[in-house]
Amino acid sequence: MKKLEQLYEGKAKKVFATDDPNVVIVDYKDDATAFNGEKKGTIVGKGVINNKMTNHLMGKLEAAGIPTHYIQQLSDRETAVKKVSIVPLEVIVRNISAGSFAKRYGVEEGIPFAEPTFELSYKNDGLGDPLLNDSHALALGLATKEEIALIRDYALRINALLKGFMKEIGIDLVDFKLEFGKTADGTIVLADEISPDTCRLWDEKTHEKLDKDRFRRDLGGAEEAYEEVMRRLMGEQ
Ligand code: TMP
Ligand code: ASP
Q1: What is the pLDDT of residue 236?
Q2: Mean pLDDT of 205-229
Q3: Of 49, 112, 169, 191, whose CA is between 20 and 30 Å from 56?
Q4: Which atom of ligand 1 is nearest the CA belonging to 212?
Q5: Average pLDDT along the chain
Q6: Which residues line the pocket of ligand 1, CB cutoff 6 A?
Q7: What DSSP assignment string belongs to 32-56?
Q8: What separation in Å is there between the alpha carbon of 1 and the centre of ligand 1?
Q9: What is this structure's pTM?
Q10: Torsion of CA 58, 4, 31, 36, to 10 degrees
Q11: Beta-strand runs (E) in 39-157
């Protein structure tokens, strides 16, 4: 497979065309941003970890029956994925209060929920990714009713699976963000990444944060936290 011109550069990844119109190559960067790009920095080695971790987890999700965009890892930072058009929704599932949920509803962080929550934001940096509900997403034509129902079903199944994978390595899955895409034939598949950039991961015993909150909140030790998650999940690389 040949890597051709760059199609897109996001905050954490670049996307390249290939000689196959249905395949693109994702290239993971070490760049870290927070607060809609206002805070910028670098987490050295993050791109390699996020690439390998995403592929590992998407492989496990595929094996459990969740369709994903994953095709094949090409190098430490590069992966071939199915070309999709991204559904402009950020899909967030939460198991424990934290982040914007705690802030918005005035509760402390760390309260476990009886049932996971499911929320949608409009993926639109210009507007700051505003929270919306199903009827808003329909009104804006972001997805159909059937697509939203399928995305919700996948997101909750993915939560149950990821929670289990993390528990095996002594980590509580607090919350995470997913993005879905549509392939040329209209199939909805899991896209983007699953990494410490997009999940809150707390050590189950010490409650130490092993995710991007170390960068967002200037806690230090972001590199070490990403490496720790990687080591627990995949062993020494
Ligand atoms: P939040 O509490 O800030 O809404 O974040 C919920 C989850 O979504 C958390 O695990 C981090 C992830 N997330 C992203 O992946 N990208 C984003 O732009 C934001 C705001 C959150
Ligand atoms: N994606 C967010 C940003 O723009 C960062 C975050 O994960 O909080 O900069």
Answers
A1: 72
A2: 98
A3: 112
A4: 11
A5: 98
A6: 92, 98-101, 175-177, 198-200
A7: EEETTTTEEEE-TTHHHHHHHHHHH
A8: 33
A9: 0.98
A10: -80
A11: 39-42, 70-73, 78-82, 85-86, 89-96, 112-122, 131-132
